[in-house]
Amino acid sequence: MSIGEGVADLLGLKAHERLRVEWMVFYYTMAKENATLTAQHFSISRKTLYKWFKRFKDSKYDVHSLADQSKAPCHKRKWEVTLIQEERIRRLRKRYPYYGKKKLMVLYEKEYSEGISTWKIERVIRRHKLYPDQKKAEKAARKRARARQKPKKRITQLVKEGRPCFLFQLDTIVIYWNNLKRYILTAVDHATKLGYARMYKK
Q1: Residue 11: predicted pLDDT
Q2: Residue 50 belongs to a domain
Q3: pLDDT, tens digit, for every residue of 141-162?
Q4: Which one-letter DSSP state was computed for residue 157?
Q5: Whole-angstrom distance between the N-terminal and C-terminal Cα of the chain?
Q6: Torsion angle of alpha carbons 13, 19, 20, 25, nearest 10°?
C-alpha cells in the first residue's frame, strides 16, 4: 500500500477519492511538482489535476477537500402554498382528474381571479397523491425510489488504467455510396492506441 492509500484509508475515503490523494502525493514526491508528468502518469487532463490541486491548496492541504462534495442546491424551495390555495387546487383536481397542471392553472385563474404557478399545483398533487391512476403513480414512485438508491455509474467516475483492452473509444459513422448505405465502426484502445475499423451492411 502506498502512502496516499494509507492516509486515505484512515479518513474513510472512497476508491476514486483515494486516487486523488495519490495524485497529490505523486505530484509532490515522484513528479517534484511537475503537473504535466503527474497528469500523464495517471492518464488525466491537466485541467482536472489543477482543479483538484487548487481545492487541495485552498483548504491548506486538508485531505478531506479531495472528497466528493454535495451537489445539492444551497437554497432549497420551501412549501409556499397557502391553505386556501391548497384546498382550491384539490377541488379542481378532483373535478378534472385527467387535466395537467397547465390546464389546471388556467382554470384556477379563471375561477378564482388569482394567479398561481404550475409548480404549486404539482406540489399539491404530489402531496395528496391526486393521480387518476393511483397504482400507476405508486409504481412510478417506487421506480424513482429504486433509482435513487442505486444511482447510475457515470463514465466520468471511471478510474482509467494503463493496461491494454481496459478501455475502448468507439464511434460509428454512416456513409452513402452508389445508392448503398453502409456503417463504419471504429475503435481505439485507450492504452496502446491500437485501432480497428470495419464496414457493415446493417
Answers
A1: 59
A2: yes
A3: 888 888 888 888 887 788 888 8
A4: G
A5: 49
A6: 110
**Strand order across the beta sheet in which 168-177 lies:** 168-177, 180-189, 195-200
The domain in which residue 180 lies consists of 168-200
The domain total for the chain is 3
In tens, the pLDDT along 60-69 reads 888 888 888 7
Residue type, 118: T
Q: pLDDT of 186-202, one tens digit each?
A: 999 988 999 999 999 98
In this prediction the pTM is 0.38
- Average of per-residue pLDDT values in the chain: 86
Question: What contacts 195, CB < 8 A, 6 or more positions away?
Answer: 186, 187, 188, 189
Which residues, other chains included, contact 163 with Cβ-Cβ below 8 Å and sequence gap of 6+?
191
Cβ-contact 25, 18 below 8 angstroms: no
- Say whether both 189 and 140 belong to one domain: no
- Burial label, 72 (beta-carbon count in 10 A; 0-12, 13-18, 19+): exposed
Q: What is the rounded distance in angstroms from the CA atom of residue 198 to the CA atom of residue 202?
A: 12
Which helix (H) or strand (E) segment holds residue 173: the answer is strand 168-177
67's grid cell: 472528497
17 found inside a domain:
yes
